[in-house]
Amino acid sequence: MLLSPLAVTAQTENDEYLEYEDSLTENPLMADTMQAVLVPWPQNVQIQIDMLLEDPLFKKSQVAVEVYDLTADSVIYKHNERQLMRPASTQKIITAITAIDRLGGAYQFRTRLFYTGSISDGVLNGNVICQGGFDPKFNTDDMKAFVESLQKMGVDTIRGNLIADVSMKDKDEYGEGWCWDDDNHVLTPLLISRKDKFMDKFLEFLQKEGVVVTGEIKTGVVPQSARAICARFHTIDQILKPMMKESDNLYAESMFYQTAASGGAHPASARHARAFTRQLIKKMGLNPDDYKVADGSGLSLYNYVTAEEEVAFLRYAYNNINIYEHFLPSLPIAGVDGTLKNRMKGTHAADNVRAKTGTVTAIVSLAGYCTAANGHNLCFSIINQGLIREKAGRAFQDKVCLVLCNP
Questions:
Q1: Is the Cα dihedral 401, 403, 404, 406 positive or negative?
Q2: Dihedral, 172, 177, 181, 187 alpha carbons, nearest 10
Q3: Which end of the chain has a smaller Cβ tally under 10 Å, C or N?
Q4: Rounded Cα–Cα distance for residues 147 and 113 (Å)
Q5: 214: helix, coil or strand?
Q6: Looking only at Cα atoms, what is the longest distance across the chain?
Q7: CA gap 281, 291 in Å, rounded
Q8: For the segment 364-401, what is each residue's pLDDT rounded down to a tens digit?
Q9: Coil, strand or helix: which one is 44?
Q10: Where in the chain is the domain with CATH 3.40.710.10?
Q11: pLDDT tens digits, 116-148
Q12: Is residue 314 within 8 Å of residue 368, measured between CB atoms?
């Protein structure tokens, strides 16, 4: 019986495949490679990641991986996904998503200026109060606006004190579990250009503009009788971008304490922020007692997460447009910007993977989103721990991303 050209081609391809399949038994590594090529997605992804995990690197270090198909709503890969790990800066994912969920995308980080007393003939007989809102982006332009607002009121002399209202948060200057030899920023509600020199700079700016201050710099709170002079603010998106793309720890801690204060706690503390994170973890169907939240930035050695937990947060954001529209643009883009600018260049993962990096001594992490060649949206978490050379962990993570993105 004659076969059609298509049938002949199919028979030939089948014979070639059978011959090739037989040859694979003689070379196990080649067999694994070709098995990954020949099986459908996502099984090919699973085989390839399994192969990557055969690296000798994992005889001396630990790794946790979970990959979730957001389009199909299913886990497509998991390995040690429930093993507790230190997240490093992927902790910022948890901080950011909790904050956006709690505060909303329209939230503003505000620093306010008030006065008490009365103004007569250019003299303010009363105090000027700076109320801190833990805005890490407050800079010299904002300070100039404070001084100009006083001048517009005709004030050239302040017969009173300059009061710093830092009552928004507690007096803890550093996060729980921070290393003493890190270059840590002081966590205070009144910052200028990232430094704890707000009131000194305020006095300096006033004096430069010829405003005489007869009193002293003191701490206190805004009294009910005080009147507002000026307010400076930055949006949550303005804080999110450097926090995530550049992994700015100060911005992350500010976000953490904004969340803490949102429940009305005064002063707000890390404990209050943790409570809201725990609430969200529970809402996701996980047990908050299974994890440890110490700070908002990931600097602390006391943070403990799992790949499963990080993926749960990424899924939650993806499924909530009011969160996702603010969160996704803040993530570094592979080969393009932020902490992923120099990674995965010239590959199918470049300009595709959007993920938060994390690095502390012996720990490297990566968690975020990408799009597979079949158009499915994925989210993933990869945490490497116990590394002597962090570079090896990053190389592994990049390979996993290539597996997820390659056609």
A1: positive
A2: -30
A3: N
A4: 10
A5: coil
A6: 112
A7: 9
A8: 999 999 999 999 999 999 999 999 999 999 999 999 99
A9: helix
A10: 38-105+239-405
A11: 999 999 999 999 999 999 999 999 999 999 999
A12: yes
User: How far is the C-alpha of 278 from the C-alpha of 23, rounded, in Å?
Assistant: 54
Angstrom distance (rounded) from CA 188 to CA 175: 11
Domain covering 38-105+239-405: architecture:
3-Layer(aba) Sandwich (3.40)
Residues near 133 by beta carbon (within 8 Å), at least 6 away in sequence: 109, 110, 111, 112, 168, 189, 233
What distance in Å separates the CA atoms of residue 153 and residue 313, rounded to the nearest whole number?
48
Domain(s) of CATH 3.50.80.20: residues in the chain = 108-235
248/13 Cα distance (integer angstroms): 55
How much is the pLDDT for 265?
Answer: 86
Helices and strands in the chain: count of H runs, count of E runs: 12, 14
AA identity, residue 298: G
Taking the CA of residue 69 as centre, how many other CA atoms within 13 Å lie in the half-sphere pointing to its CB?
A: 18
The candidate with the shortest Cα–Cα distance to 128, out of 194, 211, 185, is: 211
User: Buried b / exposed e across 296-315, counting CB within 10 Å, b at 16+?
Assistant: bbbbbbebbbbbbbbbbbbe
One-letter amino acid of 276: F
Q: Tell me the C-alpha distance between 110 and 230, whole Å.
A: 10
Name 79's bridge partners: 65
Residues 286 and 360 sit within 8 Å (Cβ to Cβ) = no
* Length of the chain (residues): 407
Which residues, other chains included, contact 384 with Cβ-Cβ below 8 Å and sequence gap of 6+? 61, 62, 63, 363, 364, 365, 390, 393, 396, 397
Distance CA 132, CA 250 (A): 15
DSSP 230-292: EEEEEEHHHHHHHHHHS--HHHHHHHHHHHHHTTT-SSB-HHHHHHHHHHHHHHTT--GGGSB
CATH architecture of 108-235: 3-Layer(bba) Sandwich (3.50)
Collect all residues with Cβ–Cβ distance below 8 Å to 200 and sequence separation of at least 6: 217
Tokens describing residue 323: 């969160």
* Vertex 300: Cα angle to 184 and 342 (nearest 5): 75
Q: Strand, helix or coil at 369?
A: strand
Q: Which residues of the chain have pLDDT under 70?
A: 1-37
